């Protein structure tokens, strides 16, 4: 049996099971930032040490994305995807159960390893399960699991933490990931290995200067987004006296902004091309980061700031589109490595912002650090533009449909 042989109702369930896996990943990734004040206090950590818990996961994604993509190229996708998301679930549960700071950092690093591979291969699996004219629909449905996680999963994790403690915030996505693994095994069609898979062809993407430069733009330029977001909850709790519902609403506002930002960024990419859209979005991000600096100390303004930061995260879309344009036959590696670059930013941003906080620069310093990241991202984007011009690329509207984040 092939994916195409499965009836439409079964295909919908398969894609929903993949989306549930993406939902678990999104909840775990972003809820960890919201949990920072609670596990920092419980474990007696400084802001910089607590930021290492966030950064370790991000660096795990960077390491794991190319490795898992190469391994998955010649393995049956059903079992491979189920194994990745099952491992993700177990490692999140271990992060919730095992004691100590070092153990938490280690488990978060290991949990990051399956992230890029599951999402990259999962998108291809969903696309192949549908007729060619509907492939983009399958991809989008899987990826919406990430944005919906920010709207629903992360705020719910925050509410759960108030009742059961911060460890429940890691346990929740762990349980969801295990459920997704069972559903994938039960519902996904049994298909063999792709005879046309060429792992080494995928690896060539990492030797393409245009690909590497684009990944650097995402890794550095998006660091500012996470420099602010990672400490947003803690900054609100320390500098204001918000009502109990303010933190979940702030986290949900980021998710709503992220979803809208992806939609708007897709339209902008089609109209202006990936590089033009990236430039305008980085300028917008700098403005929102400046607003975040001003908003510290006012919980209502900080909720608005979270929404605006979410809008800026739509820069993922033109970056993904740019990679699709230049990656050739290495599309799955490009998809996985874009997640890796985004998570490298997720590691670098909190790391540098944590240093600024430890130096005593105050809670507004994360926004100042963020502006610096965005400015360097714009300079890197200029290098991408020059490289594209020198290689005779047509710089304009996107040639491939964007994948929503």
List keywords for this structure.
Growth Hormone, Chain: A, 2 domains, mainly alpha, 405 residues, disordered N terminus
Fraction in beta strands = under 5%
Q: How are helices and strands ordered from N to C?
A: HHHHHHHHHHHHHHHH
Overall tally of structural domains: 2
Gap from first CA to last CA: 31 Å
pLDDT below 50 for ≥5 consecutive residues: which ranges?
1-5, 398-405
Roughly what is the average pLDDT, rounded to an integer? 82
Q: What level of helicity do the residues show?
A: over 70%
CATH class of the largest domain: Mainly Alpha
CATH architecture of the largest domain: Up-down Bundle
Rg is 20 Å
Would you give the CATH topology of the largest domain? Answer: Growth Hormone, Chain: A
Strand count, sense and barrel status of the largest sheet are: none
User: Which class best fits the helix and strand makeup?
Assistant: mainly alpha
**Overall shape:** globular
SS field, number of helical segments: 16
């Amino acid at each position: 049996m092939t994916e195409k042989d499965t009836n439409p109702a079964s295909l919908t369930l398969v894609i929903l099971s993949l989306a549930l896996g993406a939902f678990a990943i999104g909840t775990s990734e972003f809820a960890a930032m919201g949990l920072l004040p609670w596990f920092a206090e419980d474990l007696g950590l400084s802001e910089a040490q607590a930021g290492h818990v966030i950064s370790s996961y991000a660096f795990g994604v960077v390491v794991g994305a190319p490795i898992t993509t190469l391994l998955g190229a010649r393995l049956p996708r059903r079992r491979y995807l189920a194994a990745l998301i099952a491992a993700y679930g177990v490692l999140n549960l271990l992060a919730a159960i095992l004691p100590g700071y070092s153990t938490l950092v280690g488990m978060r690093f290991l949990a990051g390893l399956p992230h890029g591979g599951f999402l990259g291969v999962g998108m291809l699996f969903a696309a192949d399960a549908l007729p060619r004219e509907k492939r983009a629909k399958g991809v989008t449905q899987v990826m919406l699991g990430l944005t919906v996680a920010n709207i629903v999963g992360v705020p719910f994790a925050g509410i759960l933490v108030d009742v059961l403690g911060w460890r429940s915030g890691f346990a929740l996505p762990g349980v969801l990931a295990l459920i997704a693994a069972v559903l994938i095994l039960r519902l996904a069609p049994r298909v063999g290995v792709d005879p046309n898979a060429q792992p080494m062809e995928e690896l060539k993407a990492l030797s393409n200067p245009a690909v590497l430069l684009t990944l650097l733009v995402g890794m550095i330029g998006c660091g500012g987004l996470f420099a602010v977001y990672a400490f947003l909850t803690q900054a609100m709790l320390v500098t204001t006296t918000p009502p109990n519902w303010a933190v979940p609403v702030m986290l949900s506002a980021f998710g709503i902004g992220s979803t809208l930002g992806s939609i708007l960024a897709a339209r902008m990419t089609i109209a202006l091309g990936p590089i033009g859209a990236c430039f305008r979005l980085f300028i917008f991000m700098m403005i929102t980061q400046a607003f975040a600096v001003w908003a510290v100390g006012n919980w209502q303004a900080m909720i608005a700031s979270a929404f605006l930061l979410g809008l800026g995260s739509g820069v993922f879309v033109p970056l993904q589109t740019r990679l699709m344009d230049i990656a050739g036959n290495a599309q799955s590696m490009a998809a996985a490595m874009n997640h890796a670059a985004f998570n490298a930013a997720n590691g670098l941003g909190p790391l540098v912002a944590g240093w600024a906080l430890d130096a005593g620069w105050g809670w507004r310093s994360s926004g100042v650090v963020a502006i610096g990241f965005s400015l360097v991202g714009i300079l890197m984007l200029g290098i991408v533009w020059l490289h594209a011009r020198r290689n005779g690329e047509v710089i304009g509207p996107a040639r491939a449909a964007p994948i929503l984040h």
